[in-house]
Automatic annotation (TrEMBL):
Keyword DNA-binding: yes
Major localization class: nucleus
GO cellular component, as recorded: nucleus
Listed Pfam families: HSF_DNA-bind
Ranges annotated as spanning the membrane: none
Gene responsible for this protein: Hsf5
Keywords: DNA-binding, Nucleus, Transcription, Transcription regulation
Protein name: HSF5 protein
Gene Ontology molecular function: DNA-binding transcription factor activity; sequence-specific DNA binding
Location of the HSF-type DNA-binding domain: 5-124
KW Transcription regulation (keyword) present: yes
Cellular compartments annotated: Nucleus
Family: Belongs to the HSF family.
């Protein structure tokens, strides 16, 4: 089995949520949920890399959510956010306040301070769905250099 590649979706997501520069994706209070501010995520991550394309090779938030679902993340809730935002530069909308949707997702294999669990995140292919439905375990990949 191949190790988790740095360009794989789970590795990219892990780097984003743990980056102090990224404000749109963060851990929940207990480190077991992924919180995504939709409006800020689109502008900060999906639309950010004009020439090279997005980190996730899509500019669509719906496609990003589809990727989360394909890797087994489950939506916990979605709520309205009305919170102060520290926007860089002049012209912060609404005096620095913004509204949008805050999406909560959870996966038992995506937890703060547990990069060792990332190897268990598998893209749910049709073959993997059949194995899961039959109660079979999916093979794990060995830890990559990112997780050591």
């Amino acid at each position: 089995p191949a190790s988790l590649k740095p360009e794989a979706f789970p590795a990219k997501l892990w780097r984003l949520v743990n980056s102090p520069r990224v404000r749109s994706v963060r851990w929940g209070a207990r480190g077991q949920e992924l919180l995504i501010d939709e409006q800020l995520f689109v502008s900060e991550v999906l639309d950010a890399a004009e020439g090279d394309g997005s980190v996730f090779k899509t500019k669509s938030f719906t496609s990003f959510i589809r990727q989360l679902n394909l890797y087994g993340f489950q939506k916990v809730s979605k709520g309205l956010v009305v919170a102060p935002r520290r926007l860089s530069g002049a012209g912060s909308e609404g005096g620095g306040r913004a509204t949008g949707f805050l999406h909560h997702f959870r996966s038992p294999h995506f937890c703060r301070d547990r990069p060792d669990l990332l190897v268990h995140l598998k893209r749910l292919t049709n073959a993997n769905k059949v194995k899961l439905a039959a109660g079979l375990a999916l093979p794990s990949r060995p830890a990559s250099h990112l997780q050591r």
